[in-house]
Structure formats: C-alpha cells, structure tokens
Amino acid sequence: MRYLHTMVRVRDLDASLRFWTDLLGLQEVRRLDNEQGRFTLVFLAAPKDLERSAAERSPEVELTYNWDPEEYTGGRNFGHLAYKFDNIYAACQRLMDGGVVINRPPRDGRTAFVRSPEGISIELLQEGEPLPPVEPWASMANTGTW
C-alpha cells in the first residue's frame, strides 16, 4: 500500500491554483476535465518531488473543482497539510506578499500556519534545523485560527 494524494474540494479553481502554485510553490502535475461528471481534477506536487521517480514521490494534493456551485464547510475539521521549505521566512514572505494571512507566524524559525482559500489549514515547516528568530516574524502575533 502507498499513500497517493489528499483531495481538497475548491470553489474557485483559479483562486485556488494561484494559492497552491504561485504562492505556496506546488506545481501542477496533471489535470483531468470530466464533462460527464462535471468536474475538474488538478494534481499538484512539491518541486523537489518532481525530481524523483513517481514511485519515490511524496503524496500529491488533488484539487477537485465541481462545475456546479456547491458550498463547502468544515475546512478546519480536515486538520492540515504540511510542507517543508528550504527557507520558511521566504515562503511566508511570498505568501504574505500575495495577500495570504500568516495565521501562526514562524516566530521560532521552524513552524508557521496559513489557510487556503477553502479554509484548509496548512503547516509550513523549516527543512532541517530551525532558522534563527528574526523580525518581523519573531514578534508577530497570531491572527485568526489555523
């Protein structure tokens, strides 16, 4: 058995792709438009995983966009997805510059949390040892929930 992917339902595919790819840094691996089922599936992977064979890759994120409008609730009860970054401060700055609220800043140089447009909590982790605390992150307060 091998863990393949996590599916997240999205209301606005363009806004979600901007968040997951342009801001968070994942890359689109493949896309399936199903006219009969009236949905689109977009599979995303971390850039370092694309350097590995398919059998060695970490699980992907599957964005599921149903063409007929639906309202989704309960993003918080999903839990969270977690990704490691070479530089958590740079990742948080890119997200913040893109309009994403940093709900739990990386005060410790190791861990931060943000939420996707669908309310999915995403944990950002520093690869390797924590970075030394720096401003503005060291004194930034939590915002909202994660």
Strand order of the largest sheet: 1-4-3-2
Count of helices? 2
User: How much strand content do the residues show?
Assistant: 25-35%
Distance between the termini: 31 Å
- Which ranges are low-confidence, i.e. pLDDT below 50, for 5 or more consecutive residues? none
Main structural class: alpha/beta
Mean pLDDT level: 90
Q: Biggest β-sheet, characterized?
A: 4 strands, mixed
C-alpha Rg (nearest Å): 16 Å
N-to-C SSE string, H for helix and E for strand: EHEEEEHEE
What's the β-strand tally? 7
Assign an overall shape: globular
Helix content: 10-25%
How would you characterize the overall build of this protein?
The radius of gyration is 16 Å and the shape is globular. With 146 residues, the chain is an alpha/beta fold. 14% of the residues lie in helices and 31% in strands. The chain has helices spanning 13-23, 88-97, and strands spanning 5-10, 27-34, 39-45, 60-66, 80-85, 111-115, 121-126. The two termini are 31 Å apart. The model has no long low-confidence stretch (mean pLDDT 90). The protein contains 2 helices and 7 strands; from the N terminus they run βαββββαββ.
Write the SSE topology.
Blueprint: E1 5-10, H1 13-23, E2 27-34, E3 39-45, E4 60-66, E5 80-85, H2 88-97, E6 111-115, E7 121-126
Parallel strand pairs: 1-4, 5-7
Antiparallel strand pairs: 2-3, 3-4, 6-7
In short:
The chain has helices at residues 13-23, 88-97, and strands spanning 5-10, 27-34, 39-45, 60-66, 80-85, 111-115, 121-126.
Features:
alpha/beta, three-stranded mixed β-sheet, 14% helix
